[in-house]
Design goal:
Helices cover 37% and strands 25% of the residues. With 295 residues, the chain is α+β, with helices and mostly antiparallel strands. It has one domain: 2-Layer Sandwich (Alpha-Beta Plaits), CATH 3.30.70.100. Strands 1-3-2-8-5-7-6-4 form an eight-stranded antiparallel β-barrel, surrounded by four helices. Helix 2 runs antiparallel to helix 4 and helix 5 runs antiparallel to helix 7. The chain is globular.
Length: 295
């Protein structure tokens, strides 16, 4: 569950960040959070999402699968706000991102397939933008990189006023202490925007197995408030008001048809296996019966 705002951050500082044009597969095989998160955001034309977008995005997945590309990504679709899809691609460093881009450029077959898929996908889109974020371990709280059984991502975006970074860090510190002491179910990963938007922007990401987890998150509010106490909550709200300029929360659903993931994730949960991949193998042809001689 992701939250951050006088009541939200107080209730459970969670995360915000949006991209998701690709993302390194975060599975049992890759338990750590990627340092660099490259996010692509696609805004679909009205009523052109759903199966139509699933189909055009599957072309990217098929191209990457045929190439057996080692870099994976996660795709998700919006359940709030303007209709859009996010794609997360994670890397251990900026150098690793550069090497991946260079390798794709040198693979003429894959590059051509991705270009064709992009043109077809573009017919459904109203706009596209990209952002790059960097992981902040100190501002994260019990992040859950294993996404095998997750179905939703709660994204919180916070813009910190210039010159108020110290107050923001204190807000995050209090949020972590309150959740720790209150023994809540809160968990989040925090990324700071490096490129593609206004500086001072942080995204807090938290994942849920079902929407029941969201209900549980709101139920933890009283635990958090009790842990900080009346004076602590007053200080928390004051610091938050001074540090944060704007904030908003969004909810996304993971979409396996838009995600290119590795075998480890698919083996962990069949949810990630697309219908096309899950189709039963074709039955062997029956032997032909001997033809009767023509009269």
């Amino acid at each position: 569950m992701n939250k951050i705002s006088p009541c939200l951050l107080g209730l459970s500082l969670a995360v915000a960040m949006s991209s998701v044009a690709a993302a390194q597969e975060m599975s049992p095989a890759t338990p750590s959070m990627p340092k660099v998160l490259q996010v692509t955001r696609e805004f679909t034309k009205p009523y052109r999402a759903g199966k139509a977008h699933d189909k055009t995005e599957s072309a990217f997945v098929e191209a990457m699968s045929r190439a057996k590309w080692p870099t994976h990504y996660l795709g998700m679709t919006s359940l709030s706000g303007k209709q859009r899809a996010l794609f997360f691609t994670g890397y251990d460093s900026f150098e690793a991102w550069e090497k991946d881009n260079t390798a794709v450029g040198k693979n003429s077959v894959l590059s051509a397939e991705l270009e064709r898929a992009s043109i077809a996908d573009g017919d459904l889109l109203d706009g596209v933008d990209q952002m790059v974020y960097y992981y902040n371990d100190k501002m994260s709280y019990r992040p859950e990189p294993d996404l095998a059984h997750k179905r939703y991502m709660d994204i919180g975006v916070y813009h910190v006023r210039p010159g108020h970074g110290e107050q923001w860090r204190e807000v995050v510190k209090m949020a972590k202490e309150g959740h720790e002491k209150g023994e809540t179910s809160a968990h989040w990963a925090t990324y700071e925007l490096m490129y593609g938007g206004e500086s001072g922007t942080y995204v807090v990401l938290s994942t849920d197995k079902s929407m029941a987890d969201i209900d549980l998150g709101f139920g933890d509010d009283k635990k958090f408030e009790a842990a900080l106490g009346e004076e602590g909550m007053k200080k928390f709200h004051e610091l938050y008001a001074a540090a944060v300029d704007t904030s908003h929360q969004e909810l996304f659903a993971f979409n396996p048809h838009m995600s290119y993931v590795g075998e480890e994730l698919i083996k962990a949960d069949p949810f990630w296996k697309t219908k096309a991949e899950a189709a039963p193998a074709a039955k062997p042809m029956e032997p032909m019966k001997p033809m009767k001689p023509k009269p």
